[in-house]
Amino acid sequence: MKLALPVIIAALALVACGESSKPASFSVAPGTAVVDVAPSAKVLKIALVMKTLTNPFFIEMEKGARRAEAELKVELQVRTAAQETSIEQQIQIVNDLIAARVDAIVIAPGDSNSLIPVLQKASSAGIKLVNIDNRLNPQAVQQAGLAPLPFVSVDNEQAAYAAARFIADGAPPGTQAAILEGIRSADNAQQRMAGARRAFAQSKAITVVASESANWKIDEGYAVTKNIFQTNPQVKLLFAANDMMALGALKYLQESRRSAVKVAGYDALDEAVAAVKAGQLAVTVDQQAGEQGFQGVSLAVRLLHGESVPDVMLIDTRLVTRKGLN
After folding, report:
1. Where are the beta strands (DSSP E) in the chain?
2. 172-206 pLDDT tens trace
3. Residue 15 in contact with residue 57, Cβ under 8 Å?
4. Domain locations in the chain?
């Protein structure tokens, strides 16, 4: 039975649209409990600042953060911008949280540079900071005089590489490939593009003929894919740096009857997993959004207790394929 992709897409649109002794990194396997934080006598106020709730990935991230809230007995405030491109709104949210005197901010920044000045302001106000999902630019952080922030995410470059290699496997000579990038000023978008490019470059049979940003959005994924195929109608491989863009691309490919194009996504949204099971999406990447939210809040609590935390905590990823679902 074919998946009613246009119905899924419409539903998604309605959801919104010095030296240290600390370890440099820490890897977290699926289902691993990595925190043992005793509840505080004082109810700690922790804010989770995300890019948007128009992307189900961040809904799952909030669920993980809420689990940490319940287990660690803290007060969690969840704030989001309207869209993933609403950077100025995220900046205002952080300013509001400074005024509200929260104890810690866990942030998934929409941009890797623009949020740094306001986060330095928050740090100067005594607020503990944890960076999740999209990494802030370490050089810009240092130049701003802000201490390095603990970072929770996945190896975006390696996960994107694995997904792109999956669709590239067995490609015949002369195969054309294209990439749908995320927001170009975001580190995770840059890492995913780099991973996909590395995978495609390893095959002499594949040429990347287009790489365009669709800003993580489903509607832009559709429009950019349409433009790519109007210029490069022979593209057979398409890597999308998130599932929202992949779903938009699939809608165009279905409408234009290009069933031979292999598409890779990233995030393992329920709708994308259903598309994989239906044979429409070749692969997506499960990066455990809920675990990122959970560990972000947990690290914030540990910082507030004066504990040492890892500089980098990497959550394991896995490829979701039709074979693995059957």
Report:
1. 26-28, 45-50, 75-80, 104-107, 128-132, 151-153, 175-181, 206-213, 235-240, 262-264, 283-286, 312-315, 318-321
2. 999 999 999 999 999 999 999 999 999 999 999 99
3. no
4. 18-153+290-315, 156-286
Find the DSSP H helices in 115-217. 116-124, 138-143, 156-168, 187-201
User: In this structure, are residues 324 and 169 in contact, taking their beta carbons and an 8 Å threshold?
Assistant: no
Q: Give the pLDDT confidence of 1-25 residue by residue, as tens digits.
A: 334 444 444 444 433 333 333 334 4
- The architecture that CATH gives domain 18-153+290-315 is 3-Layer(aba) Sandwich (3.40)
Q: What is the pLDDT of residues 171-180, one digit of tens each?
A: 999 999 999 9
Q: How many CB atoms lie within 10 A of CB 222?
A: 21
- Distance (Å) of CA 203 to CA 170, 198, 238, 283: 9, 9, 15, 19
For residue 92, the surrounding DSSP H or E stretch is: helix 87-99
End-to-end C-alpha distance for the chain, whole angstroms: 15
- Model's pTM, two decimal places? 0.84
Amino acid letter for position 13: A
Residue 140: count other Cβ atoms within 10 Å of its Cβ.
15
